[in-house]
Amino acid sequence: MPVTETAGHFTFADWKENPVSPEDAFPRLAHATVVNAFSGGIEAEATVCDYTIAYDTAATGTFAGMELVTGRVDGRSGAFVLEERGRFADDGTVHCTFEVVEGSGTGELAGLRGTGGFTYRHGEAKVPYTFAYEVGRA
């Protein structure tokens, strides 16, 4: 199957972060649950996302997480999980790459494989993303 490249935007619909280790010590850990809304190639009104965050300083660190996306990819309906990894800098810039978890696609997205990413800049209301994917047999 040929690889299809698509793009769009997402917005943070909700962000709840809780410390896992003392907040005044570094490095420190936190846990965040996030809801995102996607438009464009990926359409999803409310994803479910869970991150573990490692802070190097009060404003820098790394994160890893999983995001359950239920909606559409270029018109195909179903659900899938994205594994995400990223880094954030003290200027508020966040760089993230993601990959579809193998075997997680359902419905018309069964067999979905793909990778993508985004760069968020502090103050942006909409975050642009890219996604290169193929839908094959599960």
TrEMBL record:
<dbReference type="InterPro" id="IPR021607">
    <property type="entry name" value="DUF3224"/>
</dbReference>
<protein>
    <submittedName>
        <fullName>DUF3224 domain-containing protein</fullName>
    </submittedName>
</protein>
<dbReference type="Pfam" id="PF11528">
    <property type="entry name" value="DUF3224"/>
</dbReference>
<dbReference type="InterPro" id="IPR023159">
    <property type="entry name" value="SO1590-like_sf"/>
</dbReference>
